Description:
Layout: H1 2-21, H2 28-31, E1 46-52, H3 63-73, E2 77-83, H4 86-98, E3 105-109, H5 113-118, H6 131-136, H7 139-143, E4 146-147, E5 150-151, E6 153-160, E7 162-166, H8 167-172, H9 177-183, H10 187-196, E8 199-201, E9 204-212, H11 218-228, H12 247-261, H13 274-282, E10 286-292, H14 295-308, E11 323-326, E12 340-347, H15 356-370, H16 372-382, H17 389-395, H18 404-415, H19 426-448, H20 454-469
Parallel strand pairs: 1-2, 1-3, 9-10
Antiparallel strand pairs: 3-12, 4-5, 6-12, 7-10, 7-11, 8-9
Amino acid sequence: MKRKTHVLTSLLAFSMLLTTLTACGPKSNEGGGANAAKAGNGEAKDTITALLPPVSGEFQNNFAQMEKDFNALYPNLTLKIEPASWEDMTQKLDTQVNAGSPPDIAFIGSDGISKYVQQGMLMDITETATPEMIADFDPAPLEYMKKGEGLYGFPAYMEVHALGGNKEYLEAAGIDWKNVQKNGWTYEEFREAIKKGVVKEGNTTKRYGFVFATAGVTAKDYLNILIKNAGMPAAFDKDLKYAYTSKNFLEVLKAIRQLIDDGSMPKELSSVDAGKRWNMFLTGQTMITGKGLATFENSAKKNNEKLKANDGSAVQGSIPVEYIVLPVPTFLGEEPISSTVVDGYVTFRGKKEPTAEHKANVVKAAYFLASGKVAATTNNDLFAAHITKSGREAAKSMTVDRNPDNVAAVETMLSHANPARPDIPVDLGAKAIKIEDAVIIPKLQALLANEITPEEMYEAVKAEAIGTFGQDGIVND
Length: 477
């Protein structure tokens, strides 16, 4: 009887507190469900917030249905999705994080996890995620959502950063693209192949062999993709020594300059952004493009359909293109290591510790978004490989028009994807990012613009690394 009286007293006190707090309207992750009320089934009502960008072409169009389906699955829970563009996603999230009231879930790249762990704003779900949830995911992509001993969300996909070729132009240049898809190619083979793709009229280049987006921060994508195939899959080796002081790093920098000096890439490469890169591919101004994601095949198909239907929304001046997935070349006899990106639904917390109930609800929502029908629909739209058993099962009833050679090529590249490195301490990772932002990106832009030599960039990176990690903290080979 005493226990019952104590419970009633606690509930009355909680109700009075709730009335007092109503005007303040705390976010669900700040109070850990402080504004919860009892649902008809006896379970506490709760709202889970999610900040989500346009992950695929149709993703944001499905938000209302996602919210409805989640509520049908959990009648006491409400999933409230806030849309964001890719351009303002980081700014929106950082504003909310800095205010101490982030969304419960945000869709970000796994490489951003260390940043928010360091700020103390991520929610470790290691003890909350159920064994059934964990077992649903392929092990490799799930590792990317970890930092140290913590698990900070669920992966949405594991995508390969590949190259993409125009089938007609590849064959006209005598390139056996099917063999390349299966067996890869060396830098030397790649260099000669893209020379054959160049078409000139007098002194004017009408078509380049290779174009990559390198304007602004996209330059780091280009470098990061290449160096993984040169024996540097991460910024630190297994002994946690900074890797980009290796002699192989210098050789890749030399290669970057060579491809421009050969005339296979535009001299103005440093001004080519992602939009211009894709436009150049669709309008026949390049044989091979990068960074190529699986979804580009879908984008090319859709543009082809618009051209066939004489639809004015097709890219101006574009031509029909059959998109062929190609691997990145390997350097210096190193084994191929595909650059992969794992993005996902990362779990955040506010200034206050969330309750166990709210934590469990956030995990339910993150898993709902990353698995089953939602994952299958999103990944099919992206032409991305499914990474959950439930997603594969749901996808069986969905039709996707993909080139089977491209599917096989992506599977081959995924078989030697760069491994996750949750062992890299947060502080080391943060220092590496600082070197990348302060030295590597600006120096690479200068290299692309032919303002400095590969050797000058290499020495600048090495000097900064020694100053940051010490002579014993870097690779000396």
